[in-house]
Write a structure and sequence with these properties.
The protein is an all-alpha fold. Helix content is 66%, strand content 2%. The chain has a two-stranded antiparallel ribbon with strand order 1-2.
């Protein structure tokens, strides 16, 4: 009995291990199912989130590029294993912040980007109630919540320590780099087969557009790390290798929208370096849109004369960007946009509900606009626009909040770049702002914020911009924060320390 009292924990571990081995053997022998073997991993993740929440945050970022969709319930898919991890993370983080009265950073909660994001979530919730398909909209809104809680709200607090910014970037980048290696190896020997090239990134990314989009998103930040002041020796070599890998992946993604987004970000970078104010950039962009509508007849006539379809050659692929007469991808995108606008005209204020477009747009298609890849099944994606989609599903307020959120984040990043006292802070802010800009541009042609693959880096990079604005040393006074009682240091025990002048990359 004395031995049992002294070694009860060892005995308990042995009993649990034996019980698990018996259960696993039974499942394999009689059921042919080995999923019970994942139980220890799940328990390990729970323990990690309770004890080391920031480490769990970085683990999710690393695993996201490898996640695959799996049907969990009828009509419900989750990206495994990261979405269950995000749900658990969100519950633990919100419990610590709300129930335990943890860190409530005043500057963070009142930041314009945070307020716009909260307003967007509240409007999504409201339009879910008025939705044509309430349960679909509620699931869609909940997914947005468990994307932004870990990778914006929690991330912004974590990023007070500048090392976490670098760790987060590299956690996702290493995972993505492995996927690029796998996809590029599949590309070898298939250069002339465009359909194969569009599928080499599966099962990790659903198609080449999402794959190209995330690579474009990572490029400006990756370029920054090459010349970061603490990237010396093997670290600089690793940064160069990552940047080269991203460029190769972007090229072989054959995603025209991703190429356009990178070129657009380079153009905006030139304007920023020239000292142009954000309001003039927005005005210039608005004038460009206005000119298109004024001269749309002439523009569409010229575009209609282009018959170059998508091709595996770079020159032909670039030419096909403006082909709206025979290119199936372009024609289908125009069909989706036209259907979305017809739906919006019926419900301009509240829309049809978040996430409902793909289930409802079929009857709004017109036969003369159908392409060879058109479908009525609602199984080939959404409105293909980060702006038209919310307008159709959430009405004018929905798209207005999206545009304001993007513009405010961009303006914040540019302001930090121009006003930060520390040059490392300034350059980092500009790099991550340009990364986000690639998605803002890409969002004209596709929308991926309903997936974990893009939401993780997108909201994480948005958190970087906000954290650099809130916590950088350009602020003269420190805000008072409350830390989570009893929480480990990595959750915010050092929260009231400002970001160091030396950003360490």
């Amino acid at each position: 009995m004395t031995w049992l009292r002294k070694n009860w924990n060892l005995l308990l571990a042995m009993v649990l291990t034996l019980a698990f081995i018996v259960a696993e053997g039974y499942a394999l022998w009689f059921k042919g199912d080995a999923t019970i073997g994942l139980v220890p991993l799940a328990l390990l993740v729970v323990w990690l989130f309770v004890v080391r929440l920031e480490t769990g945050f970085l683990l999710m970022a690393f695993l996201t590029p490898f996640a695959v969709n799996k049907a969990m319930l009828p009509g419900m898919e989750l990206s495994m294993p990261v979405e269950p991890m995000m749900i658990l993370f969100s519950f633990i983080f919100l419990f610590r912040v709300l129930a335990l009265k943890g860190d409530r950073s005043t500057s963070l909660l009142t930041h314009p980007v945070t307020l716009l994001l909260l307003a967007s979530l509240l409007w999504m919730l409201f339009t879910s109630i008025t939705s044509e398909m309430p349960w679909v909209s509620i699931k869609y809104t909940l997914a947005r919540v468990w994307f932004v809680v870990p990778f914006f709200f929690a991330a912004t607090l974590f990023f007070r320590d500048p090392r976490r910014i670098r760790q987060f970037f590299w956690a996702y980048a290493i995972g993505l780099g492995v996927v690029i290696l796998i996809a590029t190896s599949k590309t070898l020997g298939n250069f002339s087969d465009l359909q194969t090239l569009h599928r080499v990134m599966k099962p990790f990314y659903n198609d080449h557009t999402a794959y190209g989009c995330v690579i474009a998103l990572m490029l400006p930040a990756a370029f920054y790390f090459i010349f970061s002041h603490n990237m010396k020796g093997w670290r600089r070599v690793l940064s160069l290798a990552l940047f080269a890998g991203l460029c190769i992946g972007l090229f072989f993604s054959y995603c025209r929208a991703a190429w356009i987004s990178v070129v657009g970000a380079i153009g905006v970078y030139v304007l920023i370096r020239m000292g142009m104010k954000v309001k003039w950039m927005v005005l210039l962009f608005g004038l460009g849109i206005g000119a298109f509508f004024v001269y749309q007849s002439d523009v569409l006539y010229k575009l209609g004369k282009n018959h170059q379809d998508s091709s595996y050659t770079l020159a032909d692929q670039v030419k096909s960007i403006s082909n709206i007469s025979t290119d199936a991808s372009n024609l289908e995108r125009l069909n989706r946009w036209a259907s979305a606008l017809r739906m919006w005209e019926e419900r301009p204020l509240l829309g049809w509900g978040p996430g409902t477009y793909q289930f409802l747009y079929a009857s709004y298609q017109r036969s003369y606009q159908l392409s060879t890849i058109s479908t009525n099944a609602g199984n080939l994606g959404n409105a293909h626009s980060e702006y038209i989609g919310p307008m159709t599903e959430q009405g004018v307020p929905g798209v207005a909040l999206v545009v304001l959120l993007f513009l405010t984040t961009f303006a914040t990043g540019v302001r930090v770049y121009r006003t930060a006292k520390d040059p490392h802070t300034a350059r980092m802010a500009l790099a991550f702002t340009l990364s986000l800009l690639t998605y803002y541009i890409h969002g004209v042609f596709n929308n991926f914020l309903d997936t974990d693959k893009l939401s993780v880096p997108f909201w994480g990079f948005t958190a970087v911009v906000v954290a650099l604005d809130v916590y950088s040393n350009k602020h003269n006074n420190r805000e008072e924060t409350r830390t989570i009682p009893g929480a480990p240091a990595d959750l915010g025990g050092h929260a009231d320390s400002p970001i160091e002048p030396d950003l360490q990359g």
